[in-house]
Amino acid sequence: MTITQNPKVKSFETRLFINGKFVDASDGGKFDLISPTTNEKFAEVSEATEEDANAAVAAAKAAFPAWSALSPSERGVYFKKLAALIIESHDELAEIEALSMGRPVSGYFESYMAANSLNHYAESGHQALGTSSLNTPGFLNMTLRQPYGVVGAIIPWNVPVLFLINKSAPALMAGNTVVVKSSEKAPLTSAKVATLVEKAGFPPGVFNIISGHGHISGNVLSHHMDIRVISFTGSGRTGRLIQQASAKSNLKNVILELGGKSPAIIFPDANLERAVKETAYSIQWNSGQVCMANSRIYVHESIAPRFIELFQKGFANIRSGDPLLPSTNHGPQADGIQYKQVQAYIEEGKKTGKMVLGSEPSEHESGFFVQPTIFLETPEDSKIMKEEIFGPVVNINTFKDEDEVVAKANDTEYGLYAAVYTKDVSRALRMAKKLDSGSVGVNCTSPAGASDMPFGGYKASGVGREGWTVSMDNYLEVKTVLIRVDEE
Ligand code: NAD
User: Fold this and answer.
1) Which residues have any ligand 1 atom within 6 Å of their CB?
2) For a Cys-Cys bond, which of 38, 46, 384, 396 suits 349, CB 3.0-4.6 Å?
3) Ranges for the Aldehyde dehydrogenase domain (predicted)?
């Protein structure tokens, strides 16, 4: 079957948003967007040049003094307007993402989460407080929390609006100005948000959003001497380049949210139906293109046959097809590159493990669809157990005891999210302590999360944490002020 897409959205914003204005790239350059569902070109987007990235940073630098002088409540007014506009644009954002990277509109939630974040930060600015101390005789000392200046944000394509807002909102509320670079695979929702930033009336230069490839404009941002903090979500490979760029330029602070190879561990006393349903969803949602997806499942050998049988049945409910249709819950991979990468891992997996398909083969002639795929009995040291596949491919292996499974689960360079299913509270807490992971789910797995809990990675899954209670700290310097107090 060949899919023909029929979107309600007929035109998109595709330009750069710099200094409060939409502009074409300085050299007129554009790159093509290909629908991952039909494999047909459907848009041309401005490719920011080095000059454009520099212009965005210069605009942000010029806007900083006035923006940082506003009170948090004054900044919050813009945030609330933007939150309302994002909610109003929910359907359009969902459609644009479905067209760009194939995410089904049926599960689109980012607009609500992004608006929640904006509304949260709109009210949180006054929490940026310093400390005071009388502990040094003859002194009253204090700390001030101050914005850095220009913050850079480089975001991936898998959940773009959420990353855009979760990085920009705390940075802006702390008084910084921002330049965001969207991903070349899914730039249109960021450009749409830029139109809403304009409507919300943010002063020119405060909130700049550019599109383009990483090695061009992203590289300029990571090396820029006027950017003092850069927040990045994406692959470990690019994260390392951004750390190097920081070291080579101005030692800017770097926050990195990187990849994962998350384990889910199922003990014999687990609620089996729940464990199956949630672990299957974790690796299938967004076609497995989720940093924290549980791509390795360790199930106790005594319940493994039943678990695997139910798991396959769970995958059988998947309805792959046009992500614009409300009935679809499994879209294609984001583009041809992702598709080829996942297929290469599947071929690799066939050499070492036992492959079981989780659903009927998709019969779409066009598009980059990958069937949810299960591998059993894969050796722990094989490539598909060690590397991030970023597709709907899961390894299910068995274990006999707690120590063995902890050793296996931790035997990876990643450490983003781990899950444990058991009714034994002490065992759950022992596991939570022992697993090398930034988040541990007990009787739940990713994407379960909490906005007021820090999110980030152990080991090579990241540097730093993000979340409502910690993100503003990422964007505030600490200054110590020592004040001598004369006694008379
Ligand atoms: P990617 O690293 O290829 O690209 C991410 C961003 O970096 C894009 O905007 C890209 O243009 C830019 N970029 C690429 N090269 C650059 C360079 N040399 N300098 C500056 N910027 C550059 O990653 P991706 O394919 O977009 O995203 C998938 C990866 O992101 C996966 O590894 C996934 O696990 C990870 N991810 C992590 C989290 C998290 O919160 N930990 C969330 C989502 C995705």
Assistant:
1) 154-158, 181, 183-184, 213-215, 218-219, 222, 233-235, 238, 241-242, 257-260, 291, 388, 390, 416, 457, 462
2) 384
3) 23-481
User: Is 360 in the active site?
Assistant: no
Q: Where are the domains of the chain?
A: 16-258+464-478, 263-451
**Is CATH 3.40.605.10 the right assignment for the domain spanning 16-258+464-478?**
yes
Distance 238 CA to ligand 1 centre (A): 6
Give residues with Cβ within 8 angstroms of 119, minimum separation 6.
79, 80, 83
The rounded Cα 377 to chain-centroid distance in angstroms is: 30
Evaluate whether 164 touches 171 at the Cβ level (below 8 Å): no
Please state the atom number of ligand 1 nearest to the C-alpha of residue 457.
41
pLDDT of residue 184: 98
Closest CA to 31 of 47, 42, 50: 47
30 pairs with which residues across the strands?
46
What percentage of the chain's residues is helix, strand, coil (to nearest 5)?
A: 40, 20, 40
Superfamily (CATH H level) for 263-451: Aldehyde Dehydrogenase; Chain A, domain 2 (3.40.309.10)
Separation of CA 336 from chain center: 20
- Tell me: the pLDDT tens digits for 287-296? 999 999 999 9
Q: What is the pLDDT of residue 35?
A: 95
